[in-house]
Amino acid sequence: MKLFVRSAGFLVSVQDLGRPGYRQSGISIGGALNLHALRVANALVGNDDLFAGLEATLGNLRLRFDDRRVVAWCGGEFTVRIGNDNLPPGHAGVVAEGEELTMAAPNAGARAWLAISGGIDVPLVLGSRSTDLRGQFGGYEGRALRDGDVIPLGTTSRLKERRFTNRRTDKSGDFEIAAPWISEWSAPTTWTATTRGDRVLRIVRGANWDRFTSEAQMSLLTTPFTVMPDSDRMAARLEGPALPRLDSSDLLSEAVVPGTLQVPPNGKPILLLGDCQTIGGYPKIAHVITVDLPIAAQLWPGNFVRFHEVSLAEAQDLLREREEDFARFRVGLSLQMS
Amino acid sequence: MRIEPLGDSALLVRIVDDFARDPEASLNAVLGALRSLESAAIPGVTELAPAYATVAIFFDAARIESFDALETTIGKILHASSLEGESEVEAPWHEIPVCYDREFAPDLGDIARAAGLDESEVIRRHSGAAYRVNCVGFIAGFPFMSGLPPELATPRRAAPRKEVPAGSVGIGGAQTGVYPRSTPGGWNLIGRTPMRLFDVQWNPPAILQAGDRVRFRQISREEFEACTR
Does residue B67 sit in helix, strand or coil? Predict the structure, then answer.
């Protein structure tokens, strides 16, 4: 029922699907920067959507458990091992009691989402187990994990584990198997490996698109931007050609969302991510569409990123399509496990 | 009123065009729209949040009929509520004790000089005015308030402070506000309150909500210390 953090790596935090419902009090939505990846990982280990997992940044993570758990992960190009065995992204694997789960530094991408059967059992704060790092609440003691932390896990049913392991053991009728066991089936790679070489983010126009010069609009759609070092869970700060405005009048603050591409007076766009503020006063030139936020969550300083415009209808169709695919995936998964 | 997309999973309803011309009436219109939308409980809508002239509507794109249908529904609800005329908007009063002690007010001198007033007069005017919360944000529980006497309006500091202590009361442009916790910040600091404004154990976690009314009451350093002990 416990997770031992042998090495916490660079930045690991407890995250779930975020904390909606409190924007009126100024509380960020937060949650996994790639919500879909966490949902897929949770589904792979037999958890509900709402279970909390871990978001690891840049790896260097070593974990142990005091009982047997099923784990799965999605994200950048990491090497994850159970003992000496490789656990590819989107596959479920069984970690035996005392065995070590390791995640090395990535070859590409920045973040990974790890689900553990039973979920991370930290208290709900305002309806969520997500860590609000800036507000210092939620998650485990409102902070990133440290070496030596012992994190409570939820109950996991014996039956559930049996479902995961029976393909190999049902002939003998013996469900005690020698871990590790890694599933042959997996989730679609577009969901589980979100690091793309080309890094093109699709956007829809923002409310203030027309406040920018036609050169600025053209630059946004044709020129690569570089991700700057002061990027974090709140935002990826970008540098490229300046994006000048037609008029410099100030705007009243209004709602911003993860994916909003806002441009402060210095002309350098800021791509907001999950931990972004609830409101902002900078003009919004565009928004990265929801289905491409998983790619945005992998951006790391030095990366190049390009933008490609799509229509709002297309963005919403893509999102609806992905949700339908996910619903089918869940059904398929339950067939695999039954 | 205008409805604009805010990415592919949210909408922004612009209730008034010129908020600053009449913040009081603008806020009432925005909060009236918020209440109408809340009570309509539109399927697929997950959250509503007001800020100045706008109400943001967050929805689950997989659960709504279509974007256009949602827009039409919202338009109808707001049209119906606007026909009902200006409804009484509930706006509770809060009194926030503030100690304007020199140690808590590193920018009081600059504000007084710029306004051509004594520091004590700045304090008298700041604590004598009636304020209203325009919106809550920047950090959780931070209230942006209108009602500041115009002569006290001061642009934000060119270089933000690396750390503003929790409870700091500041002036940013034509607004005043209170930092619910320590954070980097660029407002001009003129005092500090011992009152807690935000706690995740409360519901809602922020005491001050958009539309609420606020008065500041000057307290001595002794009172401040007694409250924080």
Answer: helix
